[in-house]
Design a protein that fits this description.
single chain, 121 residues, mainly alpha, 434 Repressor (Amino-terminal Domain), two-stranded antiparallel sheet, 7 helices
């Protein structure tokens, strides 16, 4: 967000902060969310790279297409175990998975913008 826009919003009574601030996440919770989002994004990227459908991946992991859809958006019901099993089924190595988890960058998604606005009371 541009500094000028941020200043205008703050002058109008809005508070600008990160998604983690808005959700009041601890550093550990923020780290877990970012790891889960990174793993889910990589599942989708590898599946597409391999020219597989969600149904194809579902067969590989013994699940359903709807479950794969949930995996790819890091649904709250999806476990880390399932994310890692999906990556392994797509041919990801342990070191590749480690690199995904080890990245420090927050994943940017359409549903999780970097800045959130809240109206100050």
């Amino acid at each position: 967000m541009k500094t000028s826009k941020q200043k205008k919003l703050e002058a109008a009574g809005w508070q600008v902060g990160s998604t983690a601030d808005f959700l009041e996440l601890s550093k550990a919770e923020e780290m877990l969310v970012n790891m889960k989002l990174s793993l889910a994004a990589e599942v989708k990227a590898l599946r597409i790279q391999l020219n597989l459908t969600q149904q194809d991946l579902a067969k590989r992991i013994g699940s359903s297409q709807s479950r794969v859809a949930k995996i790819e958006v890091a649904d709250k019901t999806v476990s880390f175990d399932l994310l890692i099993r999906s990556l392994a089924a797509l041919g990801a190595s342990r070191s590749h998975i480690g690199k995904i988890v080890g990245t420090r960058k927050a994943v940017k998604t359409k549903t999780s913008p970097k800045k959130r606005l809240t109206r100050q009371k």
